[in-house]
């Protein structure tokens, strides 16, 4: 009996080890894109500086952080567009927006405005938006084609949409859900957007830019 139990334990441990190796190999491409000098810093593993560089924002731009969450990118974008610009942090959670407002005040970022959205409507208060930015929020929207047709009306004639979402092949225990790059392009094409460029430097996210 003890031999059988011991053998079973060894088999289970072997299977766990093999599963770990498979996951590790699957993550190898993503791991190579991590900034290990800042591995415990969100700015490092998010490649924040490089993302903002690719957005090519200008001082005075009007930007929407759609699905702002904890406001991480709202603060970064607000600094990038400067005091002459505006950032609208949009989310369906009032408590999240309250925290963003509090943190923005503490950081002396008076160009951040919070907007309470609905599930099917971002309730954008302005038109002529230069950029709508989304980080890991695209997949939370249900009827995306209808939603983004509505959103496009608020973009300036040369306005852009930036979407970061889960990269195909990302292990579920890192990011459990998302929409892959090709599907995003297909859906936004149906909504009337034109794909302009995509970037592959993020370890776990695809990063794509679109115009109206």
TrEMBL record:
SUPFAM superfamilies: S-adenosyl-L-methionine-dependent methyltransferases. Gene3D superfamilies: Vaccinia Virus protein VP39. InterPro entries: Methyltranfer_dom, SAM-dependent_MTases_sf. Residues 58-167 form the Methyltransferase domain. This is Methyltransferase domain-containing protein. It comes from Pseudoalteromonas rubra. The lineage of its organism: Bacteria, Pseudomonadati, Pseudomonadota, Gammaproteobacteria, Alteromonadales.
